[in-house]
User: Which sequence fits this backbone?
């Protein structure tokens, strides 16, 4: 019986995770294709896209992280067959997305002049100002899409968000080709064409999700009550109480890796290039565990809604086991082929040398990264987002980065020191979070 339940839980978790993983990889693919096409415009355009896009991404990720715990709330209402509760939660989720996007858009808009104070080439900043304007406007439809995606994910329909993301990939690529180069009668927009393509693809994803959810017969039971009615303050407070700590968890982690890149830049261009290559390879594996973590949060929340504590515990353990197992496989793969992986990205001998060194550490920390990424998701399913946020701040900003700096510049381990600092942070997170579940 136990073995049967275990295998059944594996199938359920994988079934939920695969569409989320494909969607995550699709989002990364959009970024990759953007960079490839913008790169043809020259170093300034690519630099502007990276500079302004990196700043925007921090705010965007906070918004996504704030909405991420909604999937678990939807899973619980779905598990209790409380369709009116799910519909009401969706209504408040949309309102939360509007509030968050409005505040973040205002901050980014007002902060644009500060781009000139960040020590960048003025010609790069000039391009960045216009480009980031398109990204700022795209924040509203992007978070609106996320609100609806958390709903469909939470009720077990994770494939819907995946299909919409695949449409976004095609739309974004086509938009880049048309607007950057001025095809079919459109003006040649260069870098701004890429920004416009991003904006239009995000508007399309939001519209598609809204139409599908509101018009498809399978969802009509969630809209039995009038959509536009009084806002329940308690519902919004619950969304933000769970969401803001989770958004901060995302920021603490991404901010730490961003600052590690800044420190690596102090060691020279070759070390920084190798660092970016190693991070890119590690991110691909990380996206898989994020998908497993999302599936784990949904399964745990659903089991809790059914009053099955043992089932929730099994769901969480299976998700963590799947994440750790995948990352163990990824560890062996990256370590065994680190030289070949480095050579895919560059032919520069010095960059290849550093990349091989960094990938050795990256391979080592992936196991811990898998455990902590899934554990954060599982705890979201239990509506615990504060503990991961606190631990993330301690792990990255009080342990990992200070240790990395000391090893790199005091002990003179250089780039390897920074990577061992990141390794320590992820190990601390994994070891601290696992007992919490």
Assistant:
């Amino acid at each position: 019986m136990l073995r049967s339940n275990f295998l059944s839980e594996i199938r359920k978790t994988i079934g939920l995770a695969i569409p989320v993983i494909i969607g995550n990889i699709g989002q990364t693919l959009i970024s990759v294709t953007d960079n490839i096409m913008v790169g043809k415009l020259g170093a300034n355009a690519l630099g502007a896209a990276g500079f302004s896009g990196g700043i925007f991404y921090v705010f965007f990720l906070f918004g996504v992280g704030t909405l991420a715990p909604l999937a678990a709330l939807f899973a619980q209402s779905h598990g209790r067959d409380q369709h009116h509760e799910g519909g009401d939660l969706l209504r408040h989720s949309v309102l939360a997305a509007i509030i968050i996007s409005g505040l973040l858009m205002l901050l980014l808009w007002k902060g644009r002049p500060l781009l000139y104070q960040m020590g960048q080439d003025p010609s790069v900043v000039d391009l960045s100002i216009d480009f980031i304007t398109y990204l700022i406007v795209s924040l509203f439809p992007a978070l609106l899409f996320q609100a609806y995606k958390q709903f469909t994910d939470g009720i077990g329909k994770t494939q819907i968000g995946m299909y919409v993301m695949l449409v976004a990939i095609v739309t974004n690529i086509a938009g880049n080709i048309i607007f950057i180069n001025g095809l079919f009668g459109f003006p040649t927009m260069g870098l701004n064409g890429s920004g416009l393509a991003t904006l239009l693809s995000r508007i399309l994803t939001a519209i598609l999700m809204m139409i599908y959810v509101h018009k498809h017969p399978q969802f009509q039971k969630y809209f039995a009550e009038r959509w536009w009615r009084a806002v329940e303050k308690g519902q919004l407070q619950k969304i933000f109480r769970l969401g803001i700590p989770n958004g901060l968890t995302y920021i603490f982690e991404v901010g730490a890796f961003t600052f590690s890149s800044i420190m690596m830049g102090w060691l020279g261009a070759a070390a920084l290039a190798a660092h970016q290559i190693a991070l890119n390879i590690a991110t691909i594996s990380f996206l898989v565990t994020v998908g497993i973590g999302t599936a784990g949060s949904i399964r745990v929340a659903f089991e809790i809604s059914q009053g099955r504590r043992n089932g929730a515990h099994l769901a969480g353990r299976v998700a963590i086991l799947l994440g750790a197992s995948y990352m163990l496989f990824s560890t062996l793969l990256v370590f065994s082929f680190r030289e070949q992986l480095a050579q895919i990205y560059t032919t520069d001998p010095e960059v290849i040398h550093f990349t091989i060194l960094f990938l050795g550490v990256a391979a080592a920390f992936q196991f811990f990264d898998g455990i902590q990424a899934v554990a954060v998701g599982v705890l979201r399913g239990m509506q615990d987002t504060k503990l991961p946020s606190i631990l993330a701040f301690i792990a990255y900003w009080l342990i990992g980065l200070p240790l990395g700096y000391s090893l790199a510049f005091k002990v003179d381990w250089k780039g390897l020191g920074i990577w061992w600092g990141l390794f320590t942070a992820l190990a601390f997170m994994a070891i601290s979070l696992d007992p919490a579940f």
